[in-house]
Amino acid sequence: MRREIPTDVLEMLTVPGLRPDKVLKLYRELGLNWLAALEEAVRGDRLRKIKGPGASLQSKILLGIEMRRAAQGRRHMHRAAELLKVAEKHLREARPDIVRISPAGDFRRGCELVGDLSLVAEVRHLPDSAQAVSMGVELTARLTDAAHYGVTLLLATGSEAHLAGLRAIAASQSMSLDDDGLRRDGKLVAAASEDSIYRALGMQPVPPELREGRNEIAQGLPETYPSLSPITISPGSSTRIPIAPTVSIRLRRWPRPR
């Protein structure tokens, strides 16, 4: 197929649900030779001219284009696992004082498509404020100490909707949840572990895979969640990334609220 049609036409294969035979048909019968032309033809109702299921194909392609656009800037979790594994290796080489590292963000929540690549690392020697390490343009690692590892991991994991729910629960109990931990009247209540933060809020710990801001907050008061296997970056994945991400480390301080 690559020998029969221009390279730009192959971009249309990135549309979910659009098979190679259909791409070839669209190119030969309508002269559609790149993705933008395909979208213009679909929105202009031109695919009805194709023999066979023109109208149904048109609807399917439009949905696929919208799905592709929504997924831009994201990658499949298997690819994300490889990127995170490489980043962890580089981070450990750059910071020998690392005690433990955990993936965070979309990946830790088990999202099939991962947008934010994030790691949380506990280090032995850290200044008064936590640090964010930018590793290229795709990934951020958050360095923290043992006393704040839990809250750093919680906030880095998300989702934003879940965290908003936790902050609402905290506010209802005259507490606040921020980068420094769960506090009441300026005094630290919990920060070292995620479980301690949830329990201080009167909740059962919510597995990362359920933290999507749906009904998990209400269910956690005080229902018990089933045990879910944590997502890890395991070696031996069938997905291979030929080029490791470039690692450039820049530090910035996160001021802690006083």
Task: Lay out the secondary structure.
Layout: H1 20-30, H2 35-43, H3 54-70, E1 75-76, H4 77-94, E2 98-103, H5 105-108, E3 113-114, E4 117-123, E5 131-135, E6 139-144, H6 149-157, H7 160-172, E7 176-178, E8 181-184, E9 187-190, H8 194-200, H9 216-219, E10 251-253
Parallel strand pairs: 4-6
Antiparallel strand pairs: 1-3, 2-4, 5-6, 5-10, 7-8, 8-9
Summary keywords:
alpha+beta, Beta Polymerase, domain 3, 5-stranded mixed sheet, 3-stranded antiparallel sheet, 9 helices, 10 strands, 36% helix, elongated
Could you please describe the fold and organization of this structure?
By secondary structure, the protein is of the alpha+beta class. The protein has two domains: 7-70, DNA polymerase, domain 1, CATH 1.10.150; 76-251, DNA polymerase, thumb domain (Beta Polymerase, domain 3, 2-Layer Sandwich), CATH 3.30.210. It is 36% helix and 16% strand. It has helices at residues 20-30, 35-43, 54-70, 77-94, 105-108, 149-157, 160-172, 194-200, 216-219; strands at 75-76, 98-103, 113-114, 117-123, 131-135, 139-144, 176-178, 181-184, 187-190, 251-253. A hairpin with a 3-residue loop joins strand 5 and strand 6 (139-144). Helix 6 crosses helix 8.
**Which CATH class of the largest domain applies here?**
Alpha Beta
Largest sheet: 5 strands, mixed
Helix content: 25-40%
Distance from first to last alpha carbon: 63 Å
- Supply the number of helical segments: 9
* H/E topology pattern: HHHEHEHEEEEHHEEEHHE
**Which blocks of ≥5 consecutive residues have pLDDT under 50?**
235-254
Provide a compact summary of the structure.
With 258 residues, the protein is of the alpha+beta class. It folds into two domains: 7-70, DNA polymerase, domain 1, CATH 1.10.150.20; 76-251, DNA polymerase, thumb domain (Beta Polymerase, domain 3). It is built from nine helices and ten strands.
